[in-house]
Design a protein that fits this description.
The chain is mainly α. The chain is built from six helices and no strands.
Length: 166
C-alpha cells in the first residue's frame, strides 16, 4: 500500500475508532442499546466468561502478537531506533485496521474490543513519536499489555500472552 493511501486509511480508521469511543456513552443511554455504562470504560468479562471472538479478530490479534513479542527484548535493551518503532507501529495499525474492517462481534463484545483498540492506538501513537508523554518503549509496552488484556477477556483458543512485557 503506498504511503499516501496508508495515511489516509490510518486517519480514517483513527477518526472512526475515536468517534466510536466517544459515541459509546451516548449509545449506552439509548433504548436500542443495553450496554452498561461502567463496562464501556473498563474492560470486563461477560458475566464471568470471556467474550466471543470471530476468525478475523483472532487472526489479527495473533498477527499483532507476532509483531510485538519478538521485538520486546530489543525494546528492553534499548536497541530499536525511532524508525523501527514507527515501522512496527504502522504494522500494528494495519492489523488493527484489518480487524476493524472484518471483525463482526455482538455489540457488547464489540464495545469491549474498542477498549483494547484504544489502548493499541495509544501505544502505537507513542511508538510513532506522536505522544510526547510516552516514549516509544512505553508505547510498545502499552501495545503488549493491550494484547495480553485481549487474551484475558476474549475467547481465543490457544492464545498465549506476551511474555516479558515489563
Amino acid at each position: 500500500m503506498d504511503r499516501l493511501l496508508f495515511h489516509r486509511f490510518s486517519a480514517a480508521f483513527l477518526t472512526t475508532a475515536f468517534a466510536a469511543l466517544l459515541a459509546g456513552p451516548v449509545l449506552a443511554q439509548t433504548p436500542a442499546h443495553t450496554h452498561d455504562a461502567v463496562s464501556l470504560h473498563k474492560l470486563s468479562l461477560d458475566r464471568g466468561h470471556r467474550w466471543a471472538t470471530d476468525e478475523a479478530l483472532r487472526n489479527g490479534m495473533d498477527r499483532i502478537r507476532g509483531l510485538v513479542e519478538p521485538r520486546l527484548g530489543d525494546t528492553h535493551a534499548g536497541k530499536l531506533s525511532a524508525a523501527q518503532y514507527r515501522e512496527l507501529a504502522t504494522q500494528v495499525e494495519v492489523e488493527v485496521g484489518t480487524i476493524v474492517a472484518n471483525c463482526k462481534l455482538e455489540p457488547k463484545a464489540d464495545a469491549m474490543l474498542h477498549l483494547v483498540i484504544a489502548d493499541l492506538g495509544e501505544g502505537t501513537d507513542a511508538m510513532a513519536g506522536k505522544n510526547p508523554k510516552l516514549s516509544p518503549a512505553q508505547g510498545m509496552a502499552k501495545v503488549a499489555l493491550a494484547v495480553n488484556e485481549y487474551g484475558r477477556h476474549f475467547d481465543h483458543p490457544g492464545f498465549k500472552p506476551i511474555r516479558n512485557v515489563h
